[in-house]
Amino acid sequence: MSIQNKQIEDLVRRRAAARMGGGQKRIDAQHEKGKLTARERLALLLDEGSFEEFDMFVQHRCTNFGMDASHIDGDGVVTGQGTVDGRLVFVYAQDFTVNGGSLSKTMSEKICKVMDTALKVGAPVIGLNDSGGARIQEGIDALAGYAEIFERNILCSGVIPQISLIMGPCAGGAVYSPALTDFTLMVDKTSYMFLTGPAVVKSVTGEVVSQEELGGSRVHASKSGVAHFTAETEEEAIERIKLLLSFLPQNNLGTSPLKPTSDPVNRTDDSLNSIIPDNPNKAYDMYAVIRSVVDDGEFFEVHRDFARNIVVGFAHVGGRSVGVVANQPGVLAGVLDINASRKAARFVRFCDAFNIPLLTLVDVPGFLCGTQQEYGAVITNGAKLLYAYGEATVPKVTVTLRKSYGGAHIVMSCKQLRGDINYAWPSANIAVMGADGAVGVLYGKEIKAEENPEKQAALIEQKKQEYNDLFCNPYQAAQKGYIEDVIEPRNTRFRVIRAFEVLEGKRQDIPAKKHDNIPL
Predict the structure, then answer these.
(1) Which residue among the candidates 122, 173, 254, 330 is catalytic per the annotation?
(2) Does the residue 516 lie in any domain?
(3) Is 406 considered catalytic here?
(4) 227 and 276: one domain?
């Protein structure tokens, strides 16, 4: 055998060994937990034959605590580039079969190289997290490695989309990288995220809690809002991320890919003419409105289980990718509160960063009141949403369906926050407050002066009707130019599509600044 043939044979053997990670025994253990390996996950995510691996032969440099005897090619993370539906992405997948996927300095260098390259060429980064945390044997070097990754997350933010899949443990400092990315997905029952685990919690606070109760996918999807998506299986998780990518541009200088549709632009929906109940205190389903307006009734919701009184997500309208923000009358009457405000603000800012137009559907009675909200800084959190809409320069189309009262009216992309085209249905009530509250303020003395209960009740109804006739309709706002038009509900899809067509070439700047100071 020639020297060259032997070298090639050695290369093939070493590549095969690297692809085995920590070995067959540990791969089997991974499968027994219902989890795929790093390479199996990448094979599902990327187009067949598109993966180009980086740094397959990198090994850690640690010699502490016997680590000099455990050098494995790749050192616990698979990195590289590939395509998803033909579009370039950069990826890293932590390999739990190698030292529990723990982060070493060399592992961080591999991840940082991928992120640096993605930033340089302008393509999304997808991280598949499955790690026991920092490699203790490396001490401060492991912590430095995390910090270098976090710095890349910050520099990439708003420039390229960053997506995190939590496919296993993610604890301690490891949680901050997903928290810095744009979207986080967790897999039910096999992934968790927390700063300190159940044992530490018990020792410090005495509280007994399981991993699932402390940081499982359901907790973070519905209570903390850390997770934007959940999936029952890893296969479902990867398919969901592929769908998410279909709505996003490659970077902040690009535009989202168009999606051809056979759904007519001028399609009308008569059901919208009767969807608003006669009783203003009755709910209806905002999802029905969204599905009626968007292409083919397809809506990809973000943060579905968190702050359900507001709905956010992606759809296509006339083939264009748009971000949808809508109050949900079926949950807490669609009121804004702390969680709803920060959920929507985060989504609006993402869309603005990546040139995704915003469609806002408004039915909001106000902000939730009470000591819990005030002590929790509902003022600051409401200001986040106000700020997000006010700074956004992407095309913004707003449709007010029913209630739009007080400060909540302002926050939900009103004309004065540089809303581009604002429509209202005939059922829209745009006012400082509803008739019930307003009558007490405006006519309280007159009502109290009437001692006859029947006459007092009749007077209240009379004043309510006068107030409703004057304020609780869209026409005063239309007369002042605060809305462009009062539209028939059945025509909403056509009017929205035409509005976005008009706004396609929109150019709007904000004053030069180092960075803003959004209320946090």
Answers:
(1) 173
(2) no
(3) no
(4) no
